[in-house]
Design goal:
Blueprint (H helix, E strand, L loop, with lengths): L2 E5 L5 E5 L14 E7 L5 H20 E6 L11 E7 L2 E3 H13 E7 H6 L11 H13 L2 E6 L9 E3 L6 H16 L4
Parallel strand pairs: 3-4, 3-5, 5-7, 7-9
Antiparallel strand pairs: 1-2, 6-8
Length: about 190
């Protein structure tokens, strides 16, 4: 592939590959901005996402700008996202406020994994008996938890869901491809 030098807004030069457009869509220098966020969960989907990324790194680095993903970078940016992935259930008002903010900044929001999609297993305390609720009441208060753990769609509009604990990598790729096609008219 031929390399092209392009000037950035700050006057620096970056090299980009002259990559043919995906799926016949027009080539663009604009990468899709991605955010990956984890709330109340075991973060197994983050592991799966990074494993998938290892297999698709060359394609993804030309297509995606990971603006916020704690597992990938130490300096994260909260600005606009083309796609925000939310892993985990919402267990506190602070988490609910954060996910509402992410929704406002995102063109597409994807609930990832069982906790985000159905609220379980993180939300198992929602089914506790009154005696069990009394036992955990000090912890609920200590962590400023909501009375009930919520799935992401209980708090904000969700554009797509990827179920599973952990998610199936093929389902994840299919959803990512569908979103890329919707946003860009291309597939991976």
């Amino acid at each position: 592939m031929k390399q092209a030098n392009k000037s950035t807004p700050k006057g620096r030069t970056r090299t980009t590959a002259n990559v043919p457009a995906l799926g016949g869509a027009p080539a663009t220098d604009e990468k899709l901005t991605i955010g990956w966020f984890s709330f109340s969960c075991c973060e197994d989907n983050t592991v799966v996402m990074t494993e998938v990324m290892n297999d698709h790194w060359q394609e993804w680095k030309a297509l995606f700008d990971f603006r916020h993903a704690r597992v990938l970078k130490s300096h994260n940016v909260m600005d606009a996202f083309d796609i925000a992935f939310i892993e985990g259930a919402i267990a506190s008002e602070q988490q609910a406020t954060t996910v509402r903010d992410i929704r406002k900044r995102s063109k597409k929001l994807v609930a990832v994994g069982a906790c985000a999609c159905i609220g379980l297993p993180a939300g198992q305390r929602n089914t506790f008996t009154p005696e069990q609720q009394a036992e955990i009441a000090p912890l609920v208060a200590r962590f400023s938890a909501l009375p009930k753990v919520q799935k992401v769609s209980d708090v904000v509009k969700v554009d797509a869901e990827i179920p599973g604990c952990p998610m199936d990598p093929n389902t994840f790729l299919a959803k990512v491809n569908a979103l890329v096609k919707e946003l860009r008219g291309a597939t991976l």
